[in-house]
Amino acid sequence: MIRVVALRKAAVAGAAGAIAWEVALRGFSLTGFPLFDIVWSLGTLVFREDESLAWWPVGLAAHMLVGICWALVYAYFFWGRFRWPPPLQGLVFS
C-alpha cells in the first residue's frame, strides 16, 4: 500500500537538511578540518571564487534544490513503501 506523501513537508525537509549541512560544514571549517564544500563547488560554477557574495547564495540554492529532490525521492520511493520505524528507514535509505 502506498502512503500519501506531503510534498510541501518533503520539500521543507530537503531544504532544511541542506541548510543544516551548510551550518555544520561552516562549523567544521573553522576547526581546520579538511572538507569538501559542495556550496562552493556549485556556486563557483557560475561565479568567480573572489565573488563570495554572488557564489554563496547561488551555491546554497543549488544545494537546497538537490536536497529537495532527494527528499522527494525518499518520500515517494522509500517512505511510502515501507512501514519501518523512522530511524531504521533513514539508516537504510542513507
Quick synopsis:
The protein has 94 residues and is mainly alpha-helical. Helix content is 70%, strand content 0%.
Give structural notes.
The protein is mostly helical and 94 residues long. Helix content is 70%, strand content 0%. The chain has four helices and no strands. The longest helix is centred in the last third of the chain and has 28 residues, at 52-79. The mean pLDDT is 85.
Model regions low in confidence, pLDDT < 50 over at least 5 residues: none
Average pLDDT level:
85
Distance between the termini: 23 Å
> Total number of helical segments?
4
Shape: elongated
Number of separate strands: 0
Quaternary organisation? single chain
> What does the main sheet amount to?
none
Jot down its keywords.
mainly alpha
List the topology elements:
Layout: H1 7-30, H2 38-43, H3 52-79, H4 86-93
Helix pairs in contact: 1-3
